[in-house]
């Protein structure tokens, strides 16, 4: 049905557990740092809390070892700055 409507799926390749490792790691982090510490009364309350966590904390403040302990936003800014310097040289 998806192919018939021109939609590309994002499912893992058969038998390759590493295809989704990045998002699985993110899910683990958000559960440990937020969800397991809350008692949501409604789905809407949970959605708002999760979006707020991602937008205000995870992207802007939470450091990551993979990005040399920079937040995702700081790393992205650094990445584009390096690209601009490389284009000048």
UniProtKB/TrEMBL annotation:
Domain of life, per lineage: Bacteria
One Pfam family this sequence matches: rve_3
Molecular function as annotated in GO: nucleic acid binding
GO BP term, example: DNA integration
Gene3D superfamilies listed in its UniProt record: Ribonuclease H-like superfamily/Ribonuclease H
Integrase catalytic domain sequence ranges: 1-80
The protein's name: Integrase catalytic domain-containing protein
Species for this entry: Lysinibacillus mangiferihumi
